[in-house]
Amino acid sequence: MSGVSFRPLARSDFALLRGWLETPHVARWWHHDTSVESLESDFGPSLDGTEPARLAVALAEGVPFGFLQSYRYADNPGYLADVSTIVEVPQGALSIDYFVGEPALLRRGWGLAMIGAAVASLRRDEAGMPAIIVPINAANIASRRLLERAGFRAVAQGLLAPDNPADGPEHVLYRIDR
Fold first, then answer.
1. pLDDT beneath 70, residues of the chain
2. Which domains occur in the chain, in start order?
3. pLDDT tens sequence across 116-155
4. CB 69 within 8 A of CB 95
5. How many other C-beta atoms are found inside a 10 Å radius of the C-beta of residue 161?
C-alpha cells in the first residue's frame, strides 16, 4: 500500500487528536486525558521545540488518519533506565508510539503502511540510529502483530508501567535494526 506521508503535528490538530484519542480502539491502549490543558501539557513542549520528540500526523493519500511519535531513548533517561532493565538499548536507539485514529481505516493496511513509512523515514533522517525498539503491552495483540508484519522482531519480555492502569505490566519489546 502506498500513499502514506507525514506532516508535523500542529496545535490546530488538537481537536482531531482529541477525537482520535477518544475513539474506543485508541482510548483502550492510550488511556490519555483529552482535555485542552492535558493536550497542551503533553504535546505542546515538543511543538515548541523544548522537548525533542517528533510528532506527526499520518496521511493516507493526503487525508489525516493516524498519529506517530518518535523519540530517542537518550532524551528520556527514566524510560531508558526502565527499558534497559529488560533489553540492551544501544546508544542512538529510537522508539515510536502510533495509532490509526480513523476507525474506517482499521484493518485495511494503513497501519502497516504507516509503520513501514515511519521506519523508512527514520532510517533516512536519523543517521546515528542503530535500531528502533518498541515496548508493547503484551495484551495488545493487534499492535504486536502489526510490528511483526512490519519486520520488527520480539527480542524481550518484561515488566513496564502500563499506559492504561487496567492493563498488567507485562510488555513485549520489539526491535528493527537500521
1. 1-2
2. 4-177 (3.40.630.30)
3. 999 999 999 998 999 999 999 999 999 999 999 999 999 9
4. no
5. 10
